[in-house]
Design a protein that fits this description.
Layout (H helix, E strand, L loop, with lengths): L4 H33 L6 H12 L2 H11 L3 H24 L3 H20 L10 H22 L19 H39 L51 E6 L6 E4 H4 L4 E9 L10 E10 H7 L13 E6 L4 E5 H4 L6 E6 L2 E2 L9 E3 L13 E7 L22 E6 L5 E2 L2 E10 L5 E8 L5 E2 L1 E2 L9 E9 L2 E11 L21 E7 L4
Parallel strand pairs: 1-10, 12-19
Antiparallel strand pairs: 1-2, 3-4, 4-7, 5-6, 5-10, 7-8, 7-9, 11-13, 13-17, 14-15, 14-18, 16-17, 18-19
Helix pairs in contact: 1-4, 1-6, 1-7, 2-4, 2-5, 4-5, 5-6, 6-7
Length: 532
C-alpha cells in the first residue's frame, strides 16, 4: 500500500524544519567558540548587529531608542536571532526538496556574517573566520540530518521489505538530533568559558585596581543640592542607574594592566604613549559633572550626574606640544578612538579652554564600571556625549574637522554640539492621578558649563511661577528644583522652563534630537480627583 500523502509530507516538513533549526544552533555554537578564541566582537550575531546599527537610518534608530530605551541592544540581538530562526526553518524545508540549494543558502549566510565582521572597525581577516566556521558546521549538520531523514520511513509505511535494513526509524533520527544539540550545548559552554577566561584578566585587573587619592579633591556636595523630594532621583546618580547609550553589542572588557593610550597627529610635537600607571602618576582631580546624550528627547532619561576622578586632558595635550586654535594650533579636532573602533570628535578649543575635561578612571568613588568605559574614558562638561565622552579609550589623534568626520557625523549628526539648556519634570509622572491640595512639582534642569540660574513652572498655560532651586554644585552639574502647587480638581497640564547662567531662557520651540539635540519645554498632563 502507498502511504497517504498527508502522512508522508508532514513528517518531511517536520524533519526539515527540525533539521534547519538544529543545524543553525550547531553553527552558532561553533561560531561563538571561534569568536571566543579570537575577538568576541567577531561573532556572527554581534557583527551583524553592529552592521545593522551602522546601516540603520537615524530616524529609525532614534525611534528604537525611544521605544526600547537602553534595552535596544537586547531587542536587536533577539530580533537577529528570530530572523535566523525563521531562515533556518525555511532552509530546512528547502533541504528536503533540494539539498544543494539549501547548502548554498547556508553558505551565503555565512558569507554575510563574514562580510559584516570585516566591515567592523579594527577588523582583520581573522574576524571572518567565526562566521565561515559556523556556516561550514551548519551545512555539515544540515546535510547529515536531512540525509538521515530521507532514509526514515514515512509514517504508516509497512515495516520490513527490501530496504528495511537500510532504514532509520524516527527514534534513531530523534537520537541524532539530541546528540547534535548536546554537542552544540557543549561547544556553547566551551565558548562561554573561553570567553570568560579571555575577560578574566580584565575582571581581575579591575578588582585589583585602587583609585588614587585626588590631588585636587572635589568639595562635598553642598547642603541643599539634593532636595530629597519623593519621586525625584538623588543628586548624584548611582553607577548602576546611570544611563548607557552606545553601539557596543558586547561590552569591551579591557585589561588595565595591558592598556595603553597613544597621542599623536597634527600639531603634536611630541607623540606620547602611556600605560595606566604612567597616566595616574600625574595630578589627579575630582569633579562633579552631568552627562547628557544627544538622543535624549525633551523630558527624557538620558542624563546623569556623577563625581568623576581623572587626569586633566588639557595637561596631557600640552605635554604632547598641542596648542588650541586660539593660540595658533593647527588642529581643531581631537578624535578619540575606543578599543572597539568607535571614533568621537571633540573640539580642541573646548578641551583646552579651562573646563574640567578629564580622562576619567573613577565614577562616584569606584573604578569605572566596564559598561561605562573601564579603565579610562573621556568626560568633557558642556558637550553632548557623542562629541566628547569616548569610552574604553585607546587613542587620541589630533586633526581638523575639515579633514575627518567621526562616526556619528557620518550619520547625519552635527560635528559640534554644545548641550542645550533643558529642564525636566520628574514628579508628578505623566497621567498621574492626584489628590487635590498641595502637590510638589519637582525635577532637574541642566546647562553644563553655563549653569542654571532660574526654573519656572506654569499650569494650563497660565503665568510662570518661580520654582525653588537646590543649591548649585558648580556650573557643570544639573540643579534640582521644586514648586509647591495647590492642585484643584480636573485635568491639568504642567510645563517647565529654565534660564541658564548666561541669562538665556530655554526655548519652547520643539525640535527633534537630530542633528544636535532636542529643544522644547517638558510638558506633563495629570488628573486631580474631585473632592469627596
Amino acid at each position: 500500500m502507498e502511504a497517504h500523502p498527508s502522512r508522508d509530507v508532514r513528517p518531511r516538513r517536520t524533519t526539515g524544519a527540525v533539521s534547519g533549526i538544529v543545524a543553525a544552533v550547531a553553527g552558532l555554537a561553533s561560531a561563538q567558540l571561534a569568536a571566543a578564541a579570537g575577538r568576541p566582537e567577531a561573532s556572527p550575531v554581534t557583527a551583524v548587529g553592529g552592521a545593522v546599527v551602522d546601516l540603520t537610518p537615524v530616524a529609525v534608530r532614534e525611534w528604537a531608542i525611544r521605544l526600547f530605551g537602553t534595552s535596544d541592544k537586547l531587542v536587536l540581538g533577539l530580533g537577529i536571532l528570530a530572523v535566523l530562526a525563521a531562515v533556518a526553518v525555511g532552509t530546512g524545508l528547502l533541504a528536503v526538496r533540494h539539498l544543494p540549494a539549501a547548502l548554498a543558502v547556508t553558505g551565503g549566510f555565512g558569507l554575510v556574517g563574514a562580510l559584516a565582521a570585516l566591515s567592523r572597525p579594527e577588523a582583520s581577516w581573522r574576524d571572518a573566520l567565526p562566521s565561515l566556521v559556523g556556516a561550514l558546521v551548519s551545512a555539515g549538520v544540515l546535510y547529515l540530518l536531512v540525509t538521515a531523514a530521507r532514509r526514515t520511513r514515512p509514517a504508516g509505511a509497512a515495516r520490513g521489505g527490501s530496504d528495511g535494513a537500510d532504514s532509520m526509524d524516527r527514534r534513531r533520527f530523534g537520537r541524532l538530533v539530541v546528540a547534535v544539540l548536546a554537542a552544540s550545548a557543549g561547544v556553547g559552554l566551551g565558548a562561554r568559558r573561553l570567553g570568560a577566561h579571555g575577560s578574566a584578566d580584565a575582571t581581575a585587573s579591575r578588582a585589583r585596581f585602587r583609585l588614587p587619592r585626588p590631588t585636587v579633591p572635589a568639595p562635598p556636595v553642598p547642603a541643599g543640592a539634593d532636595l530629597r523630594v519623593p519621586g525625584l532621583g538623588p543628586f548624584l546618580t548611582p553607577n548602576q542607574d546611570f544611563y548607557r547609550v552606545d553601539t557596543a553589542l558586547v561590552v569591551p572588557r579591557v585589561d588595565a594592566d595591558t592598556w595603553r593610550l597613544r597621542v599623536h597627529g597634527e600639531g603634536v610635537t611630541r607623540p606620547l604613549e602611556w600605560d595606566l600607571r604612567q597616566l595616574l602618576a600625574r595630578p589627579v582631580v575630582e569633579h562633579d559633572i552631568t552627562l547628557t546624550c544627544v538622543s535624549n528627547e525633551v523630558g527624557g532619561p538620558y542624563a546623569g550626574n556623577a563625581r568623576w576622578l581623572g587626569v586633566r586632558l588639557a595637561d596631557l595635550l600640552r605635554e604632547a606640544g598641542v596648542r588650541p586654535p586660539s593660540q595658533g594650533g593647527t588642529a581643531d579636532q581631537l578624535v578619540a578612538r575606543s578599543v572597539d573602533g568607535m571614533t568621537i570628535g571633540t573640539p580642541v578649543e573646548a578641551v583646552m579652554d579651562g573646563r574640567a575635561a578629564l580622562l576619567a578612571v573613577g565614577m562616584n568613588g569606584r573604578p569605572l564600571p566596564f559598561a561605562h568605559g573601564f579603565p579610562v574614558r573621556m568626560v568633557v562638561p558642556g558637550l553632548y556625549g557623542y562629541v566628547s565622552a569616548c569610552k574604553w579609550l585607546a587613542e587620541l589623534r589630533l586633526t581638523t574637522f575639515a579633514a575627518y568626520d567621526a562616526y556619528w557625523v557620518r550619520r547625519s549628526w552635527a560635528q559640534q554640539a554644545t548641550v542645550k539648556t533643558q529642564s525636566r519634570i520628574d514628579t508628578p509622572r505623566p497621567y498621574a492621578d492626584l489628590s487635590p491640595g498641595r502637590v510638589a512639582v519637582a525635577g532637574v534642569a541642566w546647562a553644563q558649563h553655563r549653569g542654571i540660574e532660574r526654573v519656572q513652572v506654569r499650569v494650563d498655560k497660565g503665568a510662570w511661577q518661580e520654582a525653588r532651586l537646590g543649591t548649585a554644585d558648580g556650573v557643570d552639574t544639573w540643579r534640582q528644583w521644586v514648586w509647591p502647587w495647590q492642585a484643584t480638581p480636573g485635568r491639568h497640564t504642567l510645563e517647565v522652563r529654565a534660564t541658564d547662567g548666561t541669562g538665556t531662557v530655554q526655548t519652547g520651540v520643539r525640535t527633534g534630537t537630530v542633528p544636535d539635540g532636542a529643544t522644547g519645554w517638558h510638558t506633563v498632563d495629570v488628573n486631580v480627583r474631585a473632592l469627596g
